[in-house]
Amino acid sequence: MRFGVVQFPGTCDDRDAVLACERVDGAEAVLLWHGERSLDGIDAVVVPGGFSYGDYLRVGAIARFSPMMESVIAFASAGGSVLGICNGFQVLCEAGLLPGALLPNVGLRFVCRQVAVEVVNADTRFTRACAPGQVLSIPVKHTTGRYYAPEVELESMQAHGQIVLRYAPDGNPNGSSNDIAGVMNAGQNVMGLMPHPEHAVDELTGSVDGLTLFASMALGAPARA
Amino acid sequence: MPDATLPTVEDAVALGLTGEEYAEVVAKLGRPPGQVELAMFSLMWSEHCAYKHSKKLLRTLPTEGAAVFMGPGENAGAVRVSGGLVCAFKVESHNHPSAVEPFQGAATGVGGILRDIFALGARPVAILDSLRFGEPDSSRTRYLLDRAVAGIGHYGNSIGVPTIGGELYFEGPYETNCLVNAMALGLAEPGRMIKSAAVGVGNALVLFGASTGRDGIGGASVLASAEFGSDDADKRPSVQVGDPFAEKKLLECSLELLERGLLASLQDLGAAGLTSAASEMASKGEVGLEIDVDAVPLREADMEPFETMVSESQERMLCVCEPSRVAEVLSVCEKWEVHGTAIGTVIPERVMRILQGGSTVGEMPVEALVDECPLYDLAPSKPVGPLYPAPPAVLSGDAGLRATLLALLGSPNLASRLPLFEQYDCIVQSRTVRRPGQADAAVLQLPDGSALAASIDCNGRRVACDPYVGTVEAALECAANLACVGAEPLGATNNLNFGNPERPEVAWQLTEAVRGLGDACRALDAPIVGGNVSLYNETRPPVDGPSSPASEGGPIYPTPVVGMVGALPSAAGAGRLGFLRAGDAIALAGWNVTPSLEGSELAKLRGDELPDGLPGYDLAHEVRALGVLREAVRAGALSSAHDIAEGGLLVAIAECCLAGGLGADMHAIPADVELLMVFGERKGGFVLSGSLAALAALDVPLDVFGTVGGDALRVGVEGREAVSWTLDELAHAHAALGPLFA
Amino acid sequence: MKARVLIRPKAGILDPQGIAVERALPALGFTGVSQVHIGRLVELEVEDSSQLEPICRTLLANPLIEDYEIQEP
């Protein structure tokens, strides 16, 4: 299993994502430079957090046009697994791989906090190592994490199991619609979430709950020597 | 050289030089300086660059120790840590820019200290910040606090360096002169590190990063060193704007250049811009530099040579490389979307030669510029009367135990810092083992399983009471915080924030503080490997207030901020401050002297005058006790360890309860020492929890006096009914700063 | 030619920045202010003004959450 972690100018959590992927048994991870195009040998793509292109213009807006993102879009269209974390979630929404958009937090401030996240749909390639309803302790850290989608879209997402993660009751850190913390596309092969699972893979630094997402992605993926 | 527009002595004075200093410049050049030369001298001979009022004192500080890898003189100091790595660290101030424009001032303060770290070839791994404002009942204070915190977060969060700790005080004397000090830590492999000395005659000088604009023209002289008057609105255009995205690219670019072994020397551009960066490089390398200002990429087309040389535009670096490597250096720059340009050459003559196209617009001996600024002796004199008014009383002197604890927990200096810290990314880079609020010091794990700990501290009000003892306390507080997580000091950095040193009483504060810092750091074996000095921090009188002696302003509280870095053998064994297990015994450890209310937070709330002097310390006792505690934490013998700081014993216990979500039942305390014991302040005291046997085994003054458990804090007082507070009550009081960020 | 693009939050989308400014104004003595919304102004020079529309749709604005208005002098 080989993860590819996309690196834009301004990406901050790329090395953290690589470390997290490598904690999965039998998995390895490589960085994918934004200016390159090749996804040869990559089984799953992680678009990590940070401030790609300084978050200038609008979060995620510029990064989506990079050569690597063109390849990632093609990879996703062909059914490849793509996970976007925080800024990566924003990039995937901007790229049209995920429904909706992310807006400034209701509090207008950056918020860095350990939050409880409930697994709403455990029957996905991103959460199959979790139990349905399992509550994960994962940190959030963002200024623009309020998930928004038009009401009709939300209803459809709800009906099709595309809402994967929710903040626990009274624990919504940003004012997201319906406490949404993570969503999938209709094809169920692209997921985005605001919490940082790559920062919840080590008991020493707070929690190991995030590891289940990476482990889920590796389940059923080809083994590598 | 064109001399039609030779500047005058008046120009020199306007740029911050004295008439005598101007005459000295003329003597050294053998002629009056031209515009470029005067601009460069005025920067290099400013307090900020030349440390002309503090250099002699700083020479008395301890700088050597077993762990020291790089002492003062480079962009930052560095100590050896476990696993063959080196930790570079330094604290720096951005006080005056933050008072003028708090968001950009604080942001560029963070950007500047980070460049100091990666200029050495170290990857920045942590930021701590040390902030001082006036009382939060002032709308100006709330504005400054809000924007400064946002600025720190904006820069640190965006560049991907965690903010893992810091401190914040609210005191009247900082009302119009806030302090924003930022400390950064970086990690490097020693073989990848680089110095700033320009080497190799004939080598190329390459400027890379942002283009050069009119930011902060004269900023180092005017903003960083002068007491400012009521015209700071006019100075706004000279404030620099930070771009963390540009710096992130600059950081990665610099580290890649070093990884590829392309550079001979590297230096960041900070205050005083190209002038200071290039002159320092030339001075350290004992060479000269020739710089063509026409080669410098400009943001505004019509800039004059002197403006290019003094611009403080942010996010720029200067490096020296062999001429054959220039193309490769520029291609790495291109990869990171960083603009790089060769702007000059290393020359054998020890001069700074500034060219514009083909003609020379300035030429100065490097020594004169960098090393020969006149140094001034201080004329210290202990003030005869109080320098500072008593703080306004906000708590009645007869408030009981119950009300007093709640008032202290909710007071601006003691309330929870969580509302600030939540605005900072404290976890990026995956090293943070103890986040703010989890332990007395921040703890970062290293690849070999060991860990680094860091703390930054200073209680300026206590330094105002007694500059010597107060500064000793700042260093002891850092060491105590390190000991509570099991760390031993490796080295320290300091930022001396003081008023106008030409005032005898400020000179006295400075002299006494440096003496205390030296004594404490020697005793703690925490050599000072780098630091910064910020003088002329003076409060202004109210603009429209009546003119009276009390409203004439005066110095800020003397604030010698100490940052300390320590090591512990196992990240997994790092101590924590919160109570962990119901049934654990609670002990007061370390105090060999009963604390005093003088200079305490309670005294402040009561509006007491600042005392003239504080009780001193037996440093040998303190160092020994810290060692005992540190070893107990490392051995895993304790459930929790927390040092007793502002607010005293009972506040510390309440903090342990809140951090652990567990109550505590405290034995009866004698009624006659009640207030002294529970609210008095003195360094060297700790609240520990653990098994009775483990506590009793500690070879320090020890008093086991309570048990962890329940959902309330209960304190017995001899001969009276016990007093108790629910955890919810304590938490509510402690959350008092929340509304400032609502 | 020079052009300006005004980008603002779509009607009905919560605009916390606008709300924050609106809430701050009464404290400064400015009453009777409502419907404050905060957007962005992009100034650009284009050779072919027919590109403006696609530029806005593709990059400058996210039509899901933002409206844009092109102003040509």
Automatic annotation (TrEMBL), chain A:
MF annotations from Gene Ontology: ATP binding; glutaminase activity; phosphoribosylformylglycinamidine synthase activity; transferase activity
Keywords carried by this UniProt record: ATP-binding, Cytoplasm, Glutamine amidotransferase, Hydrolase, Ligase, Nucleotide-binding, Purine biosynthesis, Transferase
Gene Ontology cellular component list: cytoplasm
PROSITE patterns to which the protein is assigned, alphabetical: GATASE_TYPE_1
Biological process, per Gene Ontology: 'de novo' IMP biosynthetic process
Pathway membership, UniProt: Purine metabolism; IMP biosynthesis via de novo pathway; 5-amino-1-(5-phospho-D-ribosyl)imidazole from N(2)-formyl-N(1)-(5-phospho-D-ribosyl)glycinamide: step 1/2
Record field: catalytic activity: N(2)-formyl-N(1)-(5-phospho-beta-D-ribosyl)glycinamide + L-glutamine + ATP + H2O = 2-formamido-N(1)-(5-O-phospho-beta-D-ribosyl)acetamidine + L-glutamate + ADP + phosphate + H(+); L-glutamine + H2O = L-glutamate + NH4(+)
Protein's UniProt keywords contain Kinase: no
Active-site residues from the entry: 86, 196, 198
EC number(s) on file: 6.3.5.3, 3.5.1.2
Record flagged with keyword Isomerase: no
Top-level taxon in the UniProt lineage: Bacteria
Subunit structure: Part of the FGAM synthase complex composed of 1 PurL, 1 PurQ and 2 PurS subunits.
Function, in words: Part of the phosphoribosylformylglycinamidine synthase complex involved in the purines biosynthetic pathway. Catalyzes the ATP-dependent conversion of formylglycinamide ribonucleotide (FGAR) and glutamine to yield formylglycinamidine ribonucleotide (FGAM) and glutamate. The FGAM synthase complex is composed of three subunits. PurQ produces an ammonia molecule by converting glutamine to glutamate. PurL transfers the ammonia molecule to FGAR to form FGAM in an ATP-dependent manner.
Protein known as: Phosphoribosylformylglycinamidine synthase subunit PurQ
Organism encoding this protein: uncultured Solirubrobacteraceae bacterium
Lineage of origin: Bacteria, Bacillati, Actinomycetota, Thermoleophilia, Solirubrobacterales
Gene: purQ
